[in-house]
Amino acid sequence: MTAADPSAFALRWEHDRITQARQLRTAVNPNGDRVSVGSMLDAANRQAHTQNNSACRAQARAGDSALNGAHAVAYYCLRSDDANTNSWTPQGVSGTEDAQPGAGTVNGHRAIVFSWHAGGERPTPSDTGTRLSFLDRASNRYIHVLLVVPNSAGNNYSDVTVHAGGIVWYQHYIFVAANEGGVHVFDTDNLLQLANNPKGNTSPGCETGLQNGKYCGRGYHYLLPEIGRWNNTASGTRYDSMSLERPPSGSVAFLTSEFRRDSVGRVARWRDTDMTRFSGTIHPYIAWHQPVRYVQGAFSRGCYYFNTGGGGGNRDLAWANTTGNRTPRSQLGGRGLQDLYWLRSANQLWTLTEHRGIHSRFLYGVNRPACP
Questions:
Q1: Does 122 have pLDDT greater than 90?
Q2: Nearest to 180 by CA among 226, 119, 234
Q3: Residue 313 clears pLDDT 80, i.e. is over it
Q4: How far is CA 100 from the centre of its chain?
Q5: Of 66, 110, 87, 98, which Cα lies nearest the Cα of 174?
Q6: What residues contact residue 214 under an 8 Å CB cut-off, 6+ apart?
Q7: Is the dihedral of CA 155, 159, 164, 169 positive or negative?
Q8: Which of 25, 255, 291, 367 would suit a FRET pair with 223, their CA atoms being 20 to 30 Å apart?
Q9: pLDDT tens-digit readout, 169-187
Q10: Can you give the pLDDT at residue 126?
Q11: Pairing mode, if any, of strands 141-150 and 222-232?
């Protein structure tokens, strides 16, 4: 890996909706109360299964499984309708161990969150919608949450449309990568609850927003409003995936990485204090050229790790140093692999596979390989 110019990247805080998101929470929620992530996880209504379940094991071990050869040490199978849908495609992954230090819990829960964009693997411009799924690792249940953007008055909202190729859950914020657009930011302190709410309507036919005096979200029980965007102001830079490095001591770093087909992209490191200040213009403090193309996810811990997928079936987890021996090493990854999340309690790197089908769509982890 060779050094890249960090000044080539610049993000400017715009479309600020911090006040409007708080106003929206007051307007929508029962009594205007704050809804905790923990209570939402307690209400999770979709059952996932791990490798301890025989049916899930059979799906993962099938001859055409996306996990064949992927070195998976743990995995989740989603509900069949989520595995088979072509209306949504999974992309980014993070979790409570990114969000918090120590035990890495939020409201006493250990959870993984993953993102979906509307439509198939290559959505058309007419496709709309982005959602998150929060999975409780104790119950293996998960729940979908629709992303929305408040209006300027803070009393209504509309759909967010973003590819969501990478996400980071940090403190009570969730950062969502938006390709050339930059990064959208959401605040879990402003969760909107439509279920069991006299002001809400959870009918799937009720379009997003205020409809006939009821707040709707196309059938979703919970919505998460945007508080603003880190807009990309530097020509030629991309924000295709994201991760977080939380060392045992020292500063926390955000990583953004680029997907490139015809050349290697770059990975950039950002101070957490910059990413969470929500004002002005920020730049990464260091950047590197990636050692491989088609990067779908990147993470650093001693060295850099990259999920590479595309280009004639290439699907590897690669890793390389920035000094000394820089020759990348690799091992086979899942077919259709995406973003990266470090489950530090197990020293595992987690990702998910995007292709639809019960043999193709998994959330899985591998032991983190030692640096070269």
A1: no
A2: 234
A3: no
A4: 16
A5: 98
A6: 199, 200, 201, 206
A7: positive
A8: 255
A9: 999 999 999 999 999 999 9
A10: 64
A11: parallel
Q: Tell me the C-alpha distance between 192 and 30, whole Å.
A: 9
CA distance readout (Å), 210 to 2, 202, 221, 237: 51, 12, 15, 37
Query: Using 50, 70 and 90 to split pLDDT, how confident is the model at 15?
Result: very high
**Exposed / middle / buried, residue 213 (Cβ in 10 Å: 0-12, 13-18, 19+):** exposed
**Among candidate residues 257, 349, 254, the one with its CA nearest the CA of residue 294:** 257
Q: What does the pLDDT look like over 236-268, one tens digit per residue?
A: 999 999 999 998 888 999 999 999 999 999 999
Tokens, residue 206: 């009720």
Q: Give me the half-sphere count of Cα atoms (radius 13 Å) on the Cβ side of residue 233.
A: 12
165/297 Cα distance (integer angstroms): 8
Contact 329, 372 (CB under 8 A): yes
User: In the block, which residue shows the tokens 């990413």?
Assistant: 275
Partners of 12 in the β-ladder: 231, 281
pLDDT number for residue 284: 98
**Dist CA 79 CA 59 (whole Å):** 12
Diameter over CA atoms, the chain: 64
Distance of CA 262 to CAs 95, 209, 311, 359, 365, Å?
Answer: 32, 41, 10, 30, 29
Task: Kindly report the pTM of this predicted structure.
Answer: 0.97
User: Residue 76: what residue type?
Assistant: Y
Among 29, 33, 15, which Cα is nearest to 155's?
29
* Position with higher pLDDT, 121 vs 346: 346
**At CA 177, angle to CA 287 and CA 189, rounded to 5?**
120
Q: What is the pLDDT of residue 312?
A: 60
- Name residue, tokens 């019960």: 358
